[in-house]
Specification:
The protein is mostly helical. Helices cover 64% and strands 3% of the residues. It folds into four domains: 35-106 and 188-203, no CATH class; 226-381, no CATH class; 389-489, no CATH class; 505-645, Rossmann fold, CATH 3.40.50.280.
């Protein structure tokens, strides 16, 4: 009789689950392709809406200022929207008059232009053209067939061509109106649409925010509100600052061109201010027309040279001095992402995409910073380092690249003390390596690379003093695999006063030896490197250290240890969670062999593990359990000072 109990699930049924990551990637790619397709095919609708949103960010501070002066919601929005309209109308009038004047003056400069062109052709192009003509003539002469002797025959006479004259139809006033008004109606309609949508966005700003929260994050109001406020603040600040910088740059360029004597200076200044929204190359593109015009209207090259100097110096000062002062260090985007975004949005939406590429990319970065599933956008486009300092150290150590590790150390030591650097970067990186070695995921030779890298790092930092940088604070970096240590989590605490070792003659006899601290490494593959770090730090404070491997304190060897000249025993374990019993047995053997010596157990662990092993500490019976290298150095110094003064140690 067949049993009714369900049998084991066949192995084949687990294959789709194993393929889920690949399927998820394909779905993400399909969604991304559909999103780009919608952006491209719906650009006629999306471009005005996007321009309206960006205009609302630009005008929002003006509307808020007017509303504080009791202009009301509707009145403040209407008055605020009149500002860009008035500016646009005034600039259009000035530019139109300058362009008409410029068009009338260009024929008068035809002689100078032709003279410049002839000069350039005579200097460069003339020689090249002459060479090409001579070469073409020689080739044609060599390839032409020789005429054969033949009898002459009468050629037929071709009839004369008939002259045909095309008479255009008479132009009606309607055709003239269509030719003039037609091209203007399209941009004018888009402008009115943008202003109308921007006005409604400002009028119903709070309502739109509530609807966005309801749509995307009503279950997590805090995160959604933070994301929207962050996006609004960053975009508004970026637009206002960028607009003011570009407007000021345009004023400087326009005024400089007017002083130099280039016709249409105001028009070129406005063009420069607009084109500078294109990242990196916008101002140089704007420099081409006035530069060519300056070369054309002047019989010499002085005007063109001064125009080039004006653009180069102006862009250098604006890009390297003004923008860093107003933006801070960065706008939140990496330089590569700005270039790629300009190419992408320019291909997608044309010139409007070039102008909007940076703010649109900034929107995606903000979105990736607050939405977990879109975090890859913040990683790819943002300016935050892809790896934390801990991960960078670990990766360089695994790759056996000590030069990169030393470069990182020199950079971080500009604002951290040596002990702080070891605590916040090196020690957590070594814990990562120890955890990976315990799990058996490291390739052969990688542990050796890590140890050699740490050895070269310690050798390079031998002369680095362990002095605090002002203000002293541990830098907290998010690192999920092991969690932040207690020292990293307690970065805001006030540091304890630094201890200073008294002169050697005032120390207790046991602390006057060359190596009063006996440091015993744990059983982990990198515990000895932890001992070498603590030994280097103690040496910088005048205390010598003797390092022993874990085998020297084994049950069969500890009886032969020489404790002469030892005042304190230090036990160093990078990863206590891997083998807590090993530390307990080692501490028991040390207490039995040297009952009169204080024992310090370096408890380099996370806060959760520290609380979890609180009962375990009582079993170990150590004098103290420092959770950071700074605490360890202070504990040893305090013991030496207490022994010298006769007070209670630690």
């Amino acid at each position: 009789m067949r049993s009714s109990r369900p049998g084991p699930v066949p192995d084949g049924l687990s294959v789709p689950a194993a393929k889920m990551p690949g399927l998820r990637v394909l779905v993400s790619l399909a969604v991304g392709g559909m999103f780009v397709s919608v952006l491209y095919f719906a650009r006629v609708v999306l471009i005005p809406i996007t321009l309206a949103v960006m205009l609302s960010f630009l005008v929002a501070p003006i509307a808020a200022f007017l509303r504080r002066w009791y202009c009301g919601r509707v009145g403040s929005v209407l008055l605020a929207m009149l500002v860009p309209l008035a500016v646009l109308l005034g600039l259009s009038t000035v530019i139109g008059s300058q362009l008409s004047t410029l068009i009338r003056e260009i024929p008068a400069e035809q002689t100078v232009i032709m003279h410049k062109v002839d000069t350039i052709q005579g200097a460069t192009l003339g020689n090249i053209n002459g060479f090409l003509k001579r070469a073409g003539h020689e080739l044609k002469h060599a390839a032409a067939p020789k005429p054969a002797k033949s009898t002459r025959t009468a050629r037929p006479v071709k009839p004369a061509p008939t002259r045909v004259e095309v008479v255009p139809p008479p132009i009606s006033p309607m055709h003239v109106a269509e030719g003039i008004i037609g091209p203007v109606l399209g941009p004018l309609a888009i402008l009115l649409l943008v202003i109308t949508v921007a006005s409604f966005i400002l009028l119903y700003r709070e309502d739109l925010r509530d609807r966005m929260i309801r749509l995307f994050g009503s279950n997590d109001l805090h995160r959604t509100t933070t994301a929207l406020d962050d996006a609004g603040e960053r975009l508004s600040r970026y637009f206002v600052t960028k607009f003011l910088i570009n407007a000021g740059f345009g004023v400087v360029i326009g005024g400089g061109l007017a002083i130099i004597g280039v016709p249409g200076a105001i028009s070129w200044g406005v063009l420069t201010a607009l084109l500078r929204f294109i990242p990196y190359v916008g101002s140089f593109i704007a420099a081409v027309p006035p530069l060519l015009l300056a070369a054309a209207v002047d019989s010499t090259w002085g005007t063109a040279i001064w125009t080039l100097v004006l653009f180069v110096v102006g862009e250098g000062v604006t890009g390297q001095v003004v923008e860093p002062l107003l933006y801070g260090r960065t706008t939140g985007l990496s330089p590569i992402s700005v270039i790629v975004a300009a190419i992408f949005w320019g291909w997608l939406w044309g010139p409007v995409g070039l102008l909007l590429s940076t703010p649109l990319t900034l929107c995606f970065v903000v979105l990736g910073s607050h939405v977990e599933s879109l975090e890859f956008l913040a990683v790819l486009l943002g300016d935050r380092p892809a790896l934390t300092s801990i991960e960078t150290f670990y990766q360089r150590a695994l790759a056996g690249d000590p030069d990169e590790v030393i470069d990182q150390a020199e950079l971080l030591l500009r604002e951290r003390s040596l002990c702080n650097y070891y605590d916040s970067v090196v020690l957590p990186g070594l814990r990562l390596a120890a955890a990976d070695a315990t799990r058996g995921v490291l390739y052969p030779g990688q542990i050796e690379r890590v140890t050699e890298t740490v050895a070269e790092l310690l050798d390079d930092l031998t002369d680095e003093p362990d002095t605090e940088k002002a203000p002293r604070a541990l830098v907290v970096e998010k690192h999920e695999p092991t969690g932040p240590s207690i020292a990293e989590q307690d970065a805001e605490h006030e540091p304890t006063p630094r201890l200073t070792l008294p002169p050697r003659a005032q120390l207790a006899p046991a602390w006057r030896t060359d190596s009063p601290v006996l440091c015993i490494a744990g059983r982990g593959p990198l515990d000895r490197q932890g001992c070498e770090i603590i030994a280097q730090l103690l040496a910088k404070h005048g205390i010598g250290t003797r390092i022993l491997p874990n085998e020297a304190a084994a049950r069969t060897n500890i009886g032969g240890l020489d404790a002469a000249g030892v005042a304190l025993v230090f036990l160093c374990y990078l990863d206590i969670a891997a083998a807590p019993s090993s530390l307990r047995y080692l501490a028991r053997r040390v207490h039995k062999a040297f009952p009169e010596l204080p024992v310090v157990a370096g408890f380099w662990t996370t806060k959760e593990d520290y609380e979890r092993y609180s009962d375990f500490q009582a079993v170990i019976g150590a004098t103290c359990y420092p959770t950071s290298l700074r605490d360890a150095v202070d504990a040893v110094l305090r013991e030496a000072i207490s022994a010298a003064s006769g007070t209670i140690p630690l």
